[in-house]
Target: Histidine triad (HIT) family protein
Amino acid sequence: MAFEYDDQNIFAKILRGEIPNDTVYESAHALAFRDLYPQAPTHVLVIPKGPYVSMDHFCQEASEEELAGFMRAIGEVCRIEGVSEDGFRAISNAGENGVQEVPHLHVHILGGRPLGRMLAKAE
Ligand code: DGP
Model:
């Protein structure tokens, strides 16, 4: 599958500084900022700085440095937010079935309260 990246998506605009964000952590390869519509006391989005649509795209085409930098950023966010001990959930929605709203790879880090089961039972 060929991945097409839309550089007008909202997270691309955040990366270019065209839209403000509440930054939690930044490194050479990643930016982490608070979700505009938090669903838990901790709700941070971690995004790579490169133009990747989804986790699938990133895993196929990112360099080893980008891959490592992104994963390290997720760990840093867990440390900064203090969610490692009590637990957290990392979610990355992709495509239509995954109900991805913003077509730039992002991992939601959710924590600070019991989060319930991962998925509701299928209808
Ligand atoms: P997803 O469905 O996984 O694509 O989630 C996209 C998330 O992005 C959703 O939880 C709301 C958040 N979001 C959308 N627009 C903005 C924005 O402009 N700023 C921030 N901080 N978050 C946003």
Q: What stands out?
A: The domain at 10-111 is CATH 3.30.428.10 (HIT family, subunit A). Residues 10, 19, 21, 33-37, 45, 93, 99-102 surround 2'-deoxyguanosine-5'-monophosphate (CB under 6 Å). The chain has a mean pLDDT of 96. The first strand starts at residue 23 and ends at 26.
